[in-house]
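User: Can you help me understand a structure? I only have the sequence.
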Amino acid sequence: MWLRREIFREEVWGPQQLTHYARGKFDPKDFGVEMERETFTDEICEQFRAHWTIDELLLHPREALNFCDEVRRQRGWYMIPDDIILRTVLTRRKNP
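Assistant: Let's start by predicting it. Here is the structure, written out as tokens:
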């Protein structure tokens, strides 16, 4: 499944754009989410606080994937990749 996701992402955005996203530089609008990045971050972090700590997700990778799927399903943000969702939570933790 991961291989398929990565191939799809590279075909859609290209390797240079993926490197850009990997460094945390993204706009939610790049993924079809029409809101500012700060609001996007607030919504993901609010949903995250109800479930786990980021440290717990590192120990339970399936739960991390389930969390990402839940965010996409509940918010209708189907194009947001897992790493962007998790990176958003990590960034907020480092810079509250």
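Now, to help you interpret it: Residues 31 and 79 are 5 Å apart (CA to CA). Confidence is low (pLDDT under 50) at residues 1-8, 15-20. Let me know which part you'd like to focus on.
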